[in-house]
Amino acid sequence: MINLHRLITKLFPDRRPQREKKREREFIKAANGLKTLRVTPEGGMSIDPEELREQIIASREQLKHLVHKSGAPNRGLKPAEDAHVEPLLSPTVEAPVSAMDCIEVVAWRRLLTGAAVRYVCLQSTSTGRFAVATASLFSDGTQSLPTWIEANTAKHVANAMQNDHLRWLATVSEAMNAWDADL
Description:
By secondary structure, this protein is α+β, with helices and mostly antiparallel strands. The protein is built from six helices and six strands, in the order ααββαββββααα.
């Protein structure tokens, strides 16, 4: 096996730049350092989100000297007054969340009838909590909404953020369940 690898290396050398090879080695080293990384035979990967969160927090601490301190000169953006979010008291208590900085998350749910529901959710970057902005039902190969309405999904999300009627919950599934319960 080793001889075969050497032969392949001689016949087909890696011609990528050294910085790209170094970056790939660093990624492989980092991926191998993850404790909960699981790879399926089909090539899918999964990891415990808590481990990623710990890694991100540790990286932030190491690199926080690169971030401008508040009140420092050359600060281009000022946070909005309502961007401050109170700390969570308990994962079951809903904390006030500002929809200023969010990540769009799309989630799907298959119903017992065979239909599927697509939820467009928002995740607060400050608290990590989720809220459903809009949802669409797909059944029998057709969509419940006309395509001209569906084309305005971004507008529906923007309206939901502006109206501030979002219900923020700890997980995507809780937010989806709350959306369904409100129907």
